[in-house]
Amino acid sequence: NATTSESVSKKKGKTKKVKRKVKHDEAPVQEMEQAEGEETEKKSESGPCFPPTFSVSEIKNKQRRHSMFLKLKEEKRKQKLELKKKKKKERKALGDKAPPKEVPKTIENQRIYDETTVNPEDEEVAFDEGTDEFSAYFNRLTNPKVLITTSDRPRGRTVRFCEQLATVIPHAHVYYRRGLALKRVIPQCVSRGFTYLMVINEDRKVPNGLVLCHLPDGPTAHFKVSNVRLRKEMKRRGKDPTEHVPEVILNNFTTRLGHSIGRMFAALFPHDPQFVGRQVATFHNQRDFIFFRFHRYIFKNEKKVGIQELGPRFTLKLRSLQKGTFDSKFGEYEWVHKRHEMDSSRRKFHL
């Protein structure tokens, strides 16, 4: 019994010694882990380091590729922010001697020069404008009178859009087509003294096209209509417009084609705006998209003026300009939008 107890006590001593040794060995391991943790923290603070020839598209795993892309994007954003702060400090230090700020590159200021850009003092342009189809309006020989109609069997949204357009354009009348062809509608409009025929087309209950025909001799423009918002759909809109004649603002119609389209829109409204109504109709051309807005301006005091949108709002994109009145079979087209043009680029515009 004594021998067995001695052997057990020896074993216990050995185990204790082993345990103590393990405790001594644990300390450097913990230090190593702490050092590794600090290194990873430093790396995470500095951001992920990618080799110069790294490409995210080489990663086959979709989730891994997405996460790496986000990391790369975040790193670029931080670098850009640091560079911006550095430049700001340098400018502050230099003061008046600082170099002028760089003009940011945009699609507008990188636009390819168009040969048909109009010089306001050009005699040839002045002669053309004096003899074109709108010269009678600009010489105050005619007053605009507009007929607004729709495609056959219009839905509620298109009907409301036509009614709201009639409140924007003075002397506009809304009539329903009742299945009549446009070739039969145009002579009736001319005989009743209308100067414009406006047709709103729809697709799946949404207005998607506009045909604007100047009477009696044309031209006829076909537009794609998008982003239509009626008055009820607009936030912070003002009260319904009054019957006062609004002012008309035409922006960025610089080319020969743009000039003719701008004159076409101008001839929709009477000559003398009634400034008492404080209403403005704006046609703003940007990258060949024509944005329409209708505002009322409010005088807050002698220096401050606010604007209040009345609606509706929509965007137009010119599809074609045809000489004469509407003729889909034998009409002569002055300009047609070509979708797959060989020399097309994002920096080439026509209006």
From TrEMBL:
Residue ranges annotated for the Brix domain, each copy included: 144-327
Biased composition (Basic residues): 10-22
Record Pfam families: Brix
Gene3D superfamilies reported for this sequence: Probable brix-domain ribosomal biogenesis protein (3.40.50.10480)
Gene Ontology, cellular component aspect: nucleolus; preribosome, large subunit precursor
GO MF assignments: rRNA primary transcript binding
Location(s) in or outside the cell: Nucleus, Nucleolus
Keywords of the record: Ribosome biogenesis, rRNA processing
Single Gene Ontology BP annotation: maturation of LSU-rRNA
InterPro entries per UniProt: Brix, IMP4/RPF1
Nucleotide-binding recorded as keyword: no
Stretches the record annotates as Disordered: 1-102
Function text: May be required for ribosome biogenesis.
Protein name: Ribosome production factor 1
Species, as recorded: Cyprinus carpio carpio
